[in-house]
Design goal:
With 324 residues, this protein is mainly beta. The protein is 4% helix and 59% strand.
């Protein structure tokens, strides 16, 4: 059945036969081997009164964003695999091919991704959302598709060839009716220690006519995933969001995780509401995140600072801070 395939293959397009409002978007983070080039490529589709497909490109060094709209009929997605096409662009789990030609931005090239490993999927916990993945009509679903993988290939951007071979990549996605009313999201896989990735988000989640503060955090170290999630009983001890810094402390019965994130240069992406793609999402690809993982007795398991971090603080943050 298609519902089982879509749940156990979160990378696939979920919008076949969906009624508006509905959006779906994939997020490819690309950092070159010398760490001088930082890009986020975000393909997606919005189904509403004026539906269309799009590709957003964030240049992390400058914060420049280009949002390229495509007619809905130029969007296609396979029903039995993750193959999404928008205009002349093709997106898959292990590769992307870009052929973007807009007024301000021309991008051409192909990148391949080696050893893409996502959040583990089981029957009782199919991916990053845990058992919530089985709940129909959630406002927003989330998938972590690739923690940290090698990039092979190059892109020509406005006539300049950029080599991404041996760079590092990260892939995730969202789909549903709209982005959360307020949320914080962060991610980095550029620690001094290799094969480490942090991905974490906390958001207002509509539920049975009300809302609660839900969170998901995963620290992936050499193939071992330390998870802190609302659905598994973890708790937030502290959440502070300032103009330049986010401080977040959480714990479960075995471990404590402390995160301190500093914002960098930001660019304004577009996020989905139930009406349009009109939500302002300020994202940095130049943030840094200090991470400390401890046992409950205080023994430090991991401590390091991740660079070239993605960081978003969007929507009604005041409500997020004042809701348990």
């Amino acid at each position: 059945m298609r519902i089982f395939r879509s749940i156990f293959r979160p990378e696939m397009f979920h919008g076949h036969n969906k009624n508006p409002p509905f959006f779906e978007g994939w997020y490819y983070k690309l950092i070159s081997a010398d760490e001088s080039h930082k890009y986020a490529i975000i393909p997606g589709v919005f189904l509403g009164k004026d539906g269309y497909a799009f590709v957003q490109v964030l240049q992390g060094n400058t914060g420049e964003v280009e949002f390229i709209k495509y007619p809905l009929e130029t969007f296609s997605a396979a029903k039995d695999d993750f193959v999404v096409k928008i205009g002349e662009n093709t997106f898959q789990l292990n590769s992307l091919h870009l052929d973007i030609r807009s007024r301000k931005l021309n991008v051409y090239g192909k990148l391949e991704f080696e050893n893409v490993i996502g959040w583990p999927i089981t029957l009782t916990s199919p991916g990053v959302m845990g058992w919530y993945a089985w709940v129909p009509k959630m406002e927003c679903y989330h998938g972590v598709l690739g923690f940290d993988h090698r990039i092979i290939g190059s892109l020509e951007i406005n006539g300049v060839a950029l080599d991404f071979t041996d760079g590092r990549g990260y892939i995730e996605k969202d789909w549903g009716a709209a982005f959360p009313e307020g949320y914080v999201w962060m991610q980095t896989n550029h620690f001094q220690r290799p094969n480490v990735c942090l991905t974490a988000s906390i958001a207002m989640i509509p539920w049975l006519g009300s809302a609660f503060r839900g969170f998901i955090a995963g620290l992936w170290i050499d193939g071992e995933l330390f998870r802190f999630t609302t659905y598994a009983g973890a708790q937030v001890d502290l959440l502070e969001v300032g103009d330049s810094k986010v401080l977040w402390k959480m714990r479960d019965k075995n471990f404590r995780l402390e995160i301190e994130a500093w914002r960098g240069i930001t660019g304004d992406l577009k996020g989905p509401t139930r009406r349009n793609m009109g939500m302002r999402v300020a994202e940095s690809l130049a943030a840094k995140i200090h991470v400390k993982l401890m046992r409950t007795n205080g023994e430090i398991i991991f401590e390091d600072t991740g660079l070239h971090a993605g960081l978003e603080v969007a929507g009604d943050i005041e409500r997020l801070l004042n809701t348990e």
